[in-house]
Amino acid sequence: MDSLNVPEFTPKHGVPPRLKDYFTGASPFQKQLASVRKQTQFGQTPSRRKIPQCSPLQENVDPQKIAFLLNKQWTLYSLTPMYKFSYTNLKKYSTLLKAFVAAEKQKGLAVDMGEDFKFKVIFSILSGMKGTHRDPAAFLVQVVSKSQLSSNNSEDKVIWTGWFCCVHGDSLLENVPDDFTCLPLFLANGAESNTALIGTWFQKTFDCRFTRLTISAFNLSWMAAMWTSCNLEHYRAATELLWSVPCSPQSLDISYAINPEDAKALWDSVHQTPEEITQEEVDLFIDCLCSHFHRHFKINLSATRLVCVSTSVASAHTDGKIKMRKLRQTEV
């Protein structure tokens, strides 16, 4: 994934300069993290990837929390390691973050909590959401509101969610000091003004820094191949790829939808290594799709840019937004 210039992330409406400072200022840990990146493949796509097997860690997954993460659009960020973060203090963090957001809202800042709502902040562990026992536990932060005019029995409404995780982060963990917790991927769902404000609290509390991520066309092609390769008994959605054609005065998009069974059959014909996926296989898969399109429409897609992929498993856009599908019971 490619790093996006942080100032472009800053919401356009009403975020004060001191909140912007968080997104443009570098953490003292940045220099050490830079040395970590030089020693690892951080942010790079390998020429081949192992196909992950079912992990015994998945036995601890909370189905309700996992279901909550599905069918939502998540915006991706990278996160530097957090200093002095402790899983035993989650209740304390909930109280502190709530007080911080309430104080900023009273100052008239751009906080999208609503005028007639009370709210609470909930920190909770996402059990089983890691690749190995060494990975730090993932955790979820939710901002939940309840209207003052509604009854006591009415359901709370989740208005913002942040999800912190680390999966197979061995190469990064080897270089992180004991006082730091490495959860390099952060996913947010909710108003950007809330993300900016809550991010400010994390920066002040744990000396960390968020950076907006984009997804390159190169990595989108990997996602299209990997998700197509998933063995599902039933398919409910077409495999769709979106290419952008730069032109004046406005860009032109080309949407290419493929029957999911046909896409899977094509992948099976090019996939030769049962335990891994290689760059050669991904390139051949995309080239075959482009050749088929050219044969029928005389349009050379190699002259365009892949900006979005969507499958029965998930969808992803080059602007760093992803959505994981919720499959029916018969499809698992």
TrEMBL record:
<dbReference type="GO" id="GO:0000775">
    <property type="term" value="C:chromosome, centromeric region"/>
</dbReference>
<dbReference type="InterPro" id="IPR025204">
    <property type="entry name" value="CENP-L"/>
</dbReference>
<keyword id="KW-0539">Nucleus</keyword>
<comment type="similarity">
    <text>Belongs to the CENP-L/IML3 family.</text>
</comment>
<keyword id="KW-0158">Chromosome</keyword>
<protein>
    <recommendedName>
        <fullName>Centromere protein L</fullName>
    </recommendedName>
</protein>
<dbReference type="Pfam" id="PF13092">
    <property type="entry name" value="CENP-L"/>
</dbReference>
<keyword id="KW-0137">Centromere</keyword>
<dbReference type="GO" id="GO:0005634">
    <property type="term" value="C:nucleus"/>
</dbReference>
